Amino acid sequence: MANGTGRVVLISGASSGIGRAVAELLASRGYRVFAGVRAATTFPHPSIDVLPLDVRDETSVKACVAEVYNRVGRIDVLINNAGVNLVGAVEETSIGQAQALFDTNVVGVLRMIQAVLPGMRRQGAGQIVNISSVLGFIPAPFMAVYASTKHAIEGLSESLDHEVRGFGIRVILIEPPYVRTRLDSNAAQAERRIDAYAAQRRRTAAAITRNTDAGLEPEVIAGQVLRAIEGRYRMRRPIGQAALLNWLRRLLPARMFEPSLRKAFALDPSSKIAGTRLPNQR
Q1: 31 in active site
Q2: pTM of the model
């Protein structure tokens, strides 16, 4: 379609960052935008309706989707953007923290998808856009649980697309690199602090901060979302540096890819335990 006139979009996590940039861009292109937010906020564009939405709460999700249908009778595009981050080593992360992260980043997406699918099936068309990450297909030391949630979204999205394309519904994955949003600056920290990880954790956290500060603006990602929903269908849409990393990860053997990845996260060039023999190992 040349523009979004008449199309209805629901966006989760729309109060700031990528979600807000997408809401404002789509509204400027003629879409009727419903911005789901946890805390009250305002938008300057009259085509954006703000609705309370907490993706961790099934009642909130159902009420938000029902309100959109009550007002306009359809949802053409769902954009799952709500998400949180967590920084720390796997050993330092509590099970409760990991469960909470998955509840927002994965189960929250599932709640939203399940809430909109009946309506999309009835109308015989729809698009579900999941905001993933470059960390959905590469490792992320000291953000392993966050990366796990994005890997999960990748698998969920690809599987879902096979289930629903027969109803005229397609699933799209947006895979940004580092973006200048509050997701990283406001990231929760692992509950435990283990001294053995302290020095490396500091170096990696500093590298993540540098990469985020030099990252893309949310408006760049918003432009890619617009192209994804208006252009020729393609499921995976890696953006900027993520596109190069996706290509290199598939092309290069691990022994060639991993050194550059370790350098990017300010990790030691090689593991101290590389080649260490286990007891009774020859």
Answers
A1: no
A2: 0.88
